[in-house]
What does this fold into?
Amino acid sequence: MPEIKKILMTKNAKKFFVRDTNQDVHTQYGYIKKEDLSKSKDGEKLKSNTGDDFTVFSPFFSDLYRKIKRNAQIIPLKDLCFIIAETGISGKSTLVDAGSGSGALACFLANIAKKVTTYDIREDFIEVVKSNIKFLELKNITIKNKDVYQSIDEKNVDLITLDVPEPWLALDSCSKSLKPGGFLVSYSPSVPQVADFVNAVRKRNDFIHTKTSEIIEREWEVEDRKVRPKSISIGHSGFMSIVRKF
Ligand code: SAH
It folds into this structure.
C-alpha cells in the first residue's frame, strides 16, 4: 500500500495528502469528514464543513515525487525533461547515476527505465535515498556505496548521469561501463566545471561531446485577463553536457 493513500485537491489546485483515510482531514478550507473520505471514489467531489469543494484521487508518481525527502540540491523537473528527451531512454534502458544525493534523479529515471544503479560515497545520504525509493515503491533501483571516480561495476549501460563535483574524474569509469553510442550526461551548477569536463572529454578519443545546454523555464500566471510571466520563478540550477561513447 502506498504511504499516501489519497490526494484532495481544491479548485485552486492546492493539494492535501491523506495518509490515513480513517481520520478527518483538516485544512485551511475546513475539514473533510472521515466518513465521506473512506467511502469516496477517485474523481468524486467532497465538501468540507465550510462548504469548500475538494476532488479526491489516488496519487500519481508525479504527486508523490514532489514529496520526497531532500538533503542535497535536487535536480528540477525542467532539467529532467532535457535528459530524458535528449537520450530517449525507455523501459528497455539500463542506467547508472552518481552521486545519488537524495535519489531524486535516480528515482525519476527508474520510473521510466528498466534498471537504475545509483552510486554515492556518503552513507548518511544513502539512508535518505532508501527511504525515497520505498516511498515511491520503486523496485528497479540498486544503491551502491562506492566512489564513481574509482569504478562502475555495470557494463553495457545505455546512459550514465553524473551529478558530482569533479565529473571529469569519472570519465575512465564511464568509458568502461557505457555501450558504444551510450550517453553520458554531466550535470554541473557552475561554468568552470563545464569547461574542465568538456576539455577533459575532448582530450580523449573514446567520447564525443555533442552539446552543453541550460534549460530556462518561465511559468506564467493566468488570472482572468491578467496573463503574464510569474514575477518569481526558478533561478539557475545547472548546465547539462551531453557526451557519447565511441
Ligand atoms: N542528482 C542528485 C543530487 C546529487 S548531489 C539528486 O537529484 O538528488 C551530489 C552527490 O554526489 C552527493 O550526495 C555526494 O555525496 C555525491 N558524490 C560526490 N562525489 C562522489 C563520488 N566520487 N562518487 C559517488 N558519489 C559522489
The first helix runs from residue 34 to 38. Residues 72, 74-75, 98-105, 119-122, 125, 147-149, 163-165 surround S-adenosyl-L-homocysteine (CB under 6 Å). The chain has a mean pLDDT of 96. DSSP finds seven helices and 15 strands in the chain.
